[in-house]
């Protein structure tokens, strides 16, 4: 079992719809969770971080964390073609002293007009 | 403020040559990370430093890879000798536990695209 798992996609959604990206992780005592966006040929860019169970909203983005289910998700409301990118889920596991991140393989999102 | 700076942005070399990648972290950050990204393996952590000291190098693929951080504002990743399978994008990232509490928000540089022929 991989430490951080994501569906590779592509996830295709129409413009204006809600895109839902999911991630599961194996280290039960992980403390912090991140979503990075990576455009083709560019570096990963941090868009959301979440540390407590529940929802965290920032503009059109909402991160959801359920530690009991070892599940973290990212919702993108009113999706735009500019949101088309690969979204990487990252987890800071206890095994790394919470200092290093383990990344999932990423989910490719395609928003079509 | 300047972000993480990496050089060169592109490197093309021949098998057997030595390659040195460079990174300048964000000023004030005390953690520095080297990653490698390929289509097959995704984004892999190679090594990370805290206050210039290597903490975890378990991701370094083999002895051909070495990394140093002689001071808080500079780090190198060296591959000697290079092989075609080392072709990848190498990212440097930095973070600061002091600034972000216990939560390790990492900021990435633009990456170095390495091609070994």
How would you characterize the overall build of this protein?
The complex is a heterodimer of chains A (113) and B (117). With 113 residues, chain A is an all-beta fold. Chain A has strands at 4-6, 11-14, 19-25, 32-38, 45-50, 54-58, 61-66, 71-76, 85-92, 102-103, 107-112. Chain A starts with a strand and ends with a strand. By secondary structure, chain B is mainly beta. Helices cover 3% and strands 53% of the residues of chain B. Chain B contains 1 helix and 11 strands, in the order βββββββββαββ. Chain B has one helix at residues 97-100; strands at residues 5-7, 10-13, 19-24, 31-38, 42-50, 53-56, 65-71, 74-79, 88-95, 107-108, 112-116. In chain B, strands 2, 4, 5, 6, 9, 10 and 11 form a 7-stranded mixed sheet that branches. Chain B has a 4-stranded antiparallel sheet with strand order 1-3-8-7, with no helix packed on it. Chain B is globular. The model of chain B has no long low-confidence stretch (mean pLDDT 92). The interface between A and B is medium-sized, with 24 and 21 residues.
Report a brief summary of the structure.
The complex is a heterodimer of chains A (113) and B (117). Chain A has 113 residues and is an all-beta fold. Chain A has no helices and eleven strands.
- The N- to C-terminal Cα distance of chain B equals 37 Å
Shape of chain B: globular
Radius of gyration of chain B: 14 Å
Proportion of strand residues of chain A: over 45%
Give the ordered list of helices and strands of chain A. Answer: EEEEEEEEEEE
Q: Strand share of the residues of chain B?
A: over 45%
Q: N-to-C terminal Cα separation of chain A, in Å?
A: 36 Å
- What is the number of beta strands of chain A? 11
Largest interface: A-B, 24 and 21 residues
Quickly give the structural class of chain B.
Answer: mainly beta
- The helicity of chain B comes to under 10%
Spans of at least 5 consecutive residues with low confidence of chain B: none
Structural class of chain A: mainly beta
Q: Could you report the average pLDDT of chain A, rounded to the nearest whole number? A: 92
Radius of gyration of chain A (Å): 13 Å
Largest sheet of chain B: 7 strands, mixed
Oligomer: heterodimer
């Amino acid at each position: 079992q991989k430490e951080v798992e994501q569906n590779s996609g592509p996830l295709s959604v129409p413009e204006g719809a809600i895109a839902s990206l999911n991630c599961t992780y194996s280290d039960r005592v992980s403390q912090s969770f991140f979503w990075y966006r990576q455009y083709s040929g560019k570096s990963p860019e941090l868009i959301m971080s979440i540390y407590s169970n529940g929802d965290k909203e920032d503009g059109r983005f909402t991160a959801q964390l359920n530690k009991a289910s070892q599940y973290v998700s990212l919702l993108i409301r009113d999706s735009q073609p500019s949101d088309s990118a690969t979204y990487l889920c990252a987890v800071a596991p206890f095994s790394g002293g919470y200092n290093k991140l383990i990344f999932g393989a990423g989910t490719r999102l395609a928003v079509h007009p | 403020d300047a972000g993480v700076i990496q050089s060169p942005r592109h490197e093309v070399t021949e098998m057997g040559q030595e390659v040195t990648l460079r990174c300048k972290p964000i000023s004030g950050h005390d953690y520095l990370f080297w990653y490698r990204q390929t289509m097959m393996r995704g984004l892999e952590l190679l090594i990370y430093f805290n206050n210039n000291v290597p903490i975890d190098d378990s991701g370094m693929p083999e002895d051909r890879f070495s990394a140093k951080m002689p001071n808080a504002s500079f780090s190198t990743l060296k591959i000697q000798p290079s092989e075609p399978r080392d072709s990848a994008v190498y990212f440097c990232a930095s973070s600061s536990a002091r600034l972000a509490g216990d939560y390790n928000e990492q900021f990435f540089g633009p990456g170095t695209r390495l091609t070994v022929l």
